């Protein structure tokens, strides 16, 4: 018999309307995408209607408000600012190809902070946005980037040069790296773009330069930034490609708003050419990489759901293989970790406060029919962002799952010894008492306490305490605490000892973890 079905046919709840009051992202731009139904985005007094499959790009610093119709699902997705070219410093309406939808859900999930590692918007996504030409204002630079090549090797080279226009790598070096002949690359560039490699690179540099100049950058700085060795060489190439000098171009196209200092101005302006956009082509989405969570001991019960593909969940000393549509109830207080297969998407549906597995239902796999997908996606957005119904119960799904997985509660009023230990260590993770110490303190047989502890948590006491400390260590580091202060809070005598344990558990130092061990969107609209 398979997992129990949570919503029988015809019992999936209706999706209510949702709203987000006026806000503005401080550092990261917003990609607002409508998955199902219709929504409205209000920007600068103008209301924009967004239907299923459409999206709007909103630069950081621009105020917006959102209203989502009943029955609709929409995703507000902050994107890492370091990946963005200056051509995106404006509001843009565009369409999302169907094969990009799962990648956007992956991008949204990474903002919630529960997955390992960093994420980037991805060159293809930037091409998708920068390549559209709707809603261009009259002051936009008129010089189009060169056409993108089609074959895998030449496209990889083109994207490298568009992201870093000053890259001086010779074609022979690219050929060596890609294990392909130089003549083959030369022929493909001409056949696929109409330009030789050298002409294509110069054209890409001029395209980047037009955006720098339009954004208010100085001419000397711009020429150097896009790879020209001398001002004279830059001026000569610029005039050849645009018909005017950099000075004349800057005067005619400079935008009224100065560039922000945190903008990355050198990452491929309008990577998808106008000709490609007109022909209806679009870059292919990247493959969703395999991912996972750091092993953790939560102080809350959580429900996870497989939206696409498959995942393996380890809970205590047991492992479950989940497939599309499966959901799993994970009680608090027990070590858990998730490994997500390539091309797969796991999303958290909600949580409930709780520090102990003793009185909670045991882990259990349940299943949602595909008819429930839209409602569950709405639930994820409402539970983890501020785009939600005016009356919203974030624990609704968690209660439903808990009820389906429920087991009788232990009888009696006396506090469970294991629960007492778990609560004490959560309150003070530096507590150094051993299980024999606790046995004496609580007046409980040591062998019985050991057996009960393993039964409740799936781990021995030392392993569980070590895992709890690493869970809290990541939280402290994410808050910005130094390794020394984190070590002190967790009961390590020396920061070096803590660092050694942390590296053994995570494969990186505490400082490296703070830099690249996780991704949590810094914007206020995300409510993890």
From TrEMBL:
Region entry Disordered, spans: 243-263
Gene3D superfamilies: Homeodomain-like, Jelly Rolls
InterPro entries for this protein: AraC-bd (IPR003313), Homeodomain-like_sf (IPR009057), HTH_AraC (IPR018060), HTH_AraC-typ_CS (IPR018062), RmlC-like_jellyroll (IPR014710), RmlC_Cupin_sf (IPR011051)
MF (Gene Ontology): DNA-binding transcription factor activity; sequence-specific DNA binding
Lineage per the UniProt record: Bacteria, Bacillati, Actinomycetota, Actinomycetes, Mycobacteriales
Keywords, alphabetical: DNA-binding, Transcription, Transcription regulation
Membrane-spanning ranges: none
Keyword tRNA processing: no
Pfam families listed in its UniProt record: AraC_binding, HTH_18
Entry protein name: Helix-turn-helix domain-containing protein
Residues in HTH araC/xylS-type domain copies: 155-252, 419-516
């Amino acid at each position: 018999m398979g997992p129990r079905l949570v919503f029988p046919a015809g019992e999936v709840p209706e999706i209510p309307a949702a709203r987000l009051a006026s806000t503005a992202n401080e550092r990261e731009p917003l990609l607002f995408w409508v998955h199902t139904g219709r929504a409205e985005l209000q920007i600068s007094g103008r209301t924009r209607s967004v239907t299923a499959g459409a999206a709007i790009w909103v630069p950081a610093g621009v105020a917006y408000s959102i209203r989502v119709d009943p029955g609709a699902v929409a995703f507000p997705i902050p994107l890492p600012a370091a990946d963005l070219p200056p051509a995106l410093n404006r509001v843009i309406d565009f369409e999302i190809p169907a094969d990009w939808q799962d990648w956007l859900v992956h991008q949204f999930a990474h903002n919630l902070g529960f997955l390992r590692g960093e994420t980037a918007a991805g060159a293809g996504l930037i091409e998708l946005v920068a390549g559209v030409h709707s809603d261009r204002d009259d002051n936009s630079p008129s010089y189009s980037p060169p056409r993108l090549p089609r074959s895998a090797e030449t496209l990889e080279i083109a994207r490298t040069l568009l992201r870093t226009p000053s890259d001086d790598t010779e074609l022979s070096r690219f050929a060596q790296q890609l294990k392909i002949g130089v003549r083959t690359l030369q022929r493909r560039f001409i056949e696929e773009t109409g330009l030789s490699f050298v002409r294509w690179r110069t054209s890409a540099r001029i395209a980047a330069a037009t955006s720098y100049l339009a954004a208010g950058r100085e001419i000397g700085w711009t020429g150097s930034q896009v790879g020209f060795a001398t001002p004279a060489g830059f001026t000569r190439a610029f005039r050849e490609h645009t018909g005017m000098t950099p000075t004349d171009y800057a005067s005619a196209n400079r935008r009224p708003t100065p560039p922000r200092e945190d903008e990355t101005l050198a990452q491929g302006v309008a990577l998808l050419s106008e000709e490609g956009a007109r022909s209806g082509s679009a870059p292919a989405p990247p493959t969703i990489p395999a991912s996972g969570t750091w092993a953790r001991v939560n102080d809350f019960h959580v429900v996870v759901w497989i939206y696409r593909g498959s995942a393996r969940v380890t809970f205590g000393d047991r492992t479950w293989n989940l497939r599309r549509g499966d959901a799993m109830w994970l009680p608090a207080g027990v070590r858990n970790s998730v490994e997500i297969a390539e091309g797969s998407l796991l999303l958290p549906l909600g949580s409930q406060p709780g520090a102990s597995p003793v009185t909670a239902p045991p882990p259990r796999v349940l299943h949602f029919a595909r008819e429930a997908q839209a409602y569950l996606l709405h639930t994820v957005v409402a539970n983890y962002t501020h785009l939600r119904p005016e009356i919203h119960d974030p624990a609704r799904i968690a209660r439903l799952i808990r009820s389906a997985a429920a087991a009788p509660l232990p009888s009696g009023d006396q506090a469970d010894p294991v629960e007492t230990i778990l609560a004490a260590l959560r309150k003070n993770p530096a507590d150094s008492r051993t299980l024999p110490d606790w046995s004496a303190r609580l007046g409980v047989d040591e062998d019985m306490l050991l057996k009960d502890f393993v039964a409740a948590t799936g781990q021995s006491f030392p392993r569980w305490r070590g895992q709890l400390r690493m869970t809290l260590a990541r939280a402290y580091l994410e808050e910005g605490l130094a390794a020394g202060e984190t070590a002190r809070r967790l009961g390590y005598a020396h920061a070096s000892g803590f660092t050694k344990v942390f590296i053994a558990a995570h494969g990186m130092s505490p400082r490296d973890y703070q830099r690249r061990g996780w991704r949590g969107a810094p914007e206020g609209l995300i409510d993890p």
